[in-house]
Amino acid sequence: MHQPIRKFRSDISIFVRPLFIFFIPLGLFMFVMGMAGAYKHGFSNLPDLLFVLFFPWICFLILCLLLAFMRMLFTITVFHNGIKCYDAVGFYHFVKWNEITKVYRQSVEGIPYVFVEARELKRPLTIPLYLEDMEDFVNLIKKKDVIGFLADELY
After folding, report:
1. What band does 151 get if pLDDT is binned at 50, 70 and 90?
2. Cα-based distances in Å from 121 to 1, 80, 83, 99, 112
3. pLDDT category, 94, cuts 50, 70, 90?
4. CA 143 to chain centre
5. At residue 71, does pLDDT exceed 90?
6. In this predicted structure, what is the pLDDT of residue 145?
7. Residue 117 DSSP SS3
8. 84 - beta bridge partners?
9. Residues 102-110: what's their mean pLDDT?
10. Looking at the whole model, is its pTM more than 0.85?
């Protein structure tokens, strides 16, 4: 492998927004129910009330931290002679441009990916179509001009 041209990371905002939308009503519901229960019992059990009030937000924060960790861990690196990416299980592989045999687009649970098959791989590489600099990634792949059908599948 040579020096990397560029590293790309996933855009986690596509996951954070739905989580936030889910946790707002959950947090409000738990707040109302917690306050109603605390009122009924005369606000006698403060630790339980605090747990009920802050539990959804702590869960949201933990999920966001996990997503940020995964963003840092799972990068896609483009080299002059190939690409280093993870497969569907999370193992990294380096594939030279001329070893790519098939490229196809597929959604996994509604999340779009491009799968890249190569001669030496048991499982295809997975390139998420929600990279932070997706346009730069596509332009870089097109500039390499080594495999046209990869660039075609990215659109």
Report:
1. low
2. 17, 20, 13, 10, 21
3. very high
4. 25
5. no
6. 55
7. strand
8. 77, 94
9. 85
10. no
Sign of CA dihedral 127, 73, 93, 134: positive
Report how far residue 105's alpha carbon sits from residue 112's, in angstroms, rounded to the nearest whole number: 7
Nearest to 92 by CA among 75, 70, 69: 75
Instruction: Please provide the average confidence, as pLDDT, over all residues in the chain.
Output: 83
Task: Give the mean pLDDT of 31-47.
Answer: 79
What contacts 24+ positions apart, CB below 8 Å, involve 100-108?
A: 100/147, 100/150, 103/147, 103/149, 103/150, 103/153, 104/153, 105/129, 105/153
Residue 113, pLDDT above cutoff 80: yes
Contact status, residue 104 vs residue 154, Cβ threshold 8 Å: no
DSSP string, 60-111: HHHHHHHHHHHHHHSEEEEESSEEEEEBTTS-EEEEEGGGEEEEEEEEETTE
For residue 154, give the nearest of 132, 127, 121, 123 by alpha carbon. 127
What is the H or E stretch that residue 23 is in? helix 13-40
Q: Give Cα separations from 34 to 23, 44, 47, 136 (angstroms).
A: 16, 12, 11, 48
Q: Is the dihedral of CA 107, 109, 115, 117 positive or negative?
A: negative
- Residues 63, 19 contacting (CB under 8 angstroms): yes
> What are 141's two structure tokens?
């792949």
